[in-house]
Amino acid sequence: VLDATVNGNWICQRDDTGDIMSKPPLLTWLQALATLPFGRGNLFSLFFPNAVAVLLAMWLIFRFGTASFGRRAGFFAAMIYLLCPAGLKQIAFARTDPLFTCLILSAALVAYRARLTGRGWVTFWVIAAAITLTKGPLGVLMAAGGLLGLIGFRRDEHRSTCIQHVGGMALFLAITVGWGLLAYAAYGQDLIAKMIGKELVGHMTGQYKNIIPGTLFYKPTLYVFSRFLPWSPLVGVALWRMGRRPTHTEAERLPLHFLRAYLLASLALLSLSPHQRADLVLPLLPAAALLAGRELASLIRPTSTRRFLLRWAVGLGLCLLVSGIYYGTIRTRHRRVIQTRMMQEFARSVQERLGPESRLVYVDVPFAAQFFLNTMRPRHSYEEAARLLAGPDAVLVATQRPERIREHADPTLNLTEILRVPETGPAAVVVLSNR
Question: What is the DSSP string of 385-429?
Fold first, then answer.
């Protein structure tokens, strides 16, 4: 985000190590646009697009659940999607997964409606382009997986269906290939090696982790079960009922088959891949929430609206209380959280004592320091920092290990410790200068 807003690299970005980005830039663009009104990067603008994506996903779940299974089932499904460990995590998540999930859900529901009505395939392909620019083309397969549940559905074919697909695919290629050509013009083979070679092919084949595809097929299922607690048993019950004792009406048959195919096809796709991170199962959760919401609606007896809302308010309050205790007390002791707060304190000290225009040379300082200072500069090695300090110009070097700088510097060079955070105890960051 900072490489786009500070350095102006909007087409394709690099990080502070000089490494090219591993994912396409749609989320980066949205985060950067959210940053522009503030004039600098901040945590709100970093998390805002994904928080909106979570709300939009909840609204889509509610609308589809209400239309297919009734208002209570739609409400339960939307709340279930949020009130699970994975759902709460998405609200303040800087990675691409929440936006990726929302776009896959949107494309899947558009494809479902287009399959039934014959209209909307162009919209599907436009959303598919957004999916590809968020994380890659495999998300399009996940979005289309639900159509496997509608194989037996028959309707009169519209002559415009083929035309819609041709026009939609043309837009898809224009958007995705167009960005790819612009990015390739900027970075050439480095882009292909990182985004296609390492990220796409490497993760699919496991060559970078020495994992044989399919050997860890059980992990995505375990991730879904654990990240979707306490609602995951309801999903198992829903799938078992559909297979052994179907109790759904004729109106519910198509949406249930669609959701089952959406969930199981995506799960199979992830199970075959050697790259299996827990957050990769997030696109499966909307389908799981809809199945669980329908089951929960059938288990809980209807009651008055006032009592119904009161119970959910109490439940929501308890969930927020537990989450607040976890994120406000237990999680704050994590070393990464402590490190980030140290970088925030360091950035505040730099602005107060050295001025906002001071140009620091960063060596091994966590990138959070640059985030809070709203700078985007490449890191330097210890040797490069020592060489700059030996030069004729005044230099400020930020490092976590000042002794390494002194080891590589000229012994006759007089280095001064300008800033130290914290001021007492072991230093998290030290600023050295040759003046």
Answer: HHHHHTSSS--EEEES-HHHHHHHS-TT---EEEEEESSSSS-SE
CA dist., res. 329 & res. 176, Å (int): 43
DSSP lists the bridge partners of residue 14 as 20
Phi, psi of 176 (to 5 degrees): -75, -50
Enumerate the β-bridge partners of residue 399.
430
Across the beta sheet with 416-421, the strand order is: 360-362, 396-399, 429-433, 416-421
Report d(CA 412, CA 10) in Å as an integer.
44
Residue 185 burial class via C-beta count within 10 angstroms: exposed 0-12, middle 13-18, buried 19 and up: exposed
Spatial separation of the C-alpha atoms in residues 197 and 190, rounded to whole Å: 10
| pTM of this structure | 0.87
Relative to beta strand 396-399, strand 429-433 is antiparallel
CA 297-300-306 angle, to 5 degrees, is 95
Q: Residue 432 in 3-state DSSP?
A: strand
- pLDDT tens by residue, the chain, 435 residues: 888 888 888 888 888 887 888 888 999 999 999 998 888 888 898 999 999 999 999 999 999 999 989 888 999 999 999 888 888 888 888 899 999 999 999 999 999 998 888 888 899 999 999 999 998 888 899 999 888 888 877 665 566 778 888 888 999 999 999 988 888 888 887 777 777 766 666 556 555 555 555 556 778 888 888 888 888 899 888 888 887 766 667 678 889 989 999 999 888 888 877 666 778 888 999 999 999 999 888 887 777 778 878 877 887 888 788 878 888 888 888 888 888 888 999 999 888 888 877 788 899 888 898 899 888 888 898 888 888 888 888 888 899 888 888 888 888 788 888 888 887 777 788 888 888
Phi first, then psi, for residue 8 (nearest 5°) are: 80, 15
Query: Which residues on adjacent β-strands are paired with residue 361?
Result: 397
- Report how far residue 363's alpha carbon sits from residue 382's, in angstroms, rounded to the nearest whole number: 7
Per DSSP, the three-state class of 435 is: coil
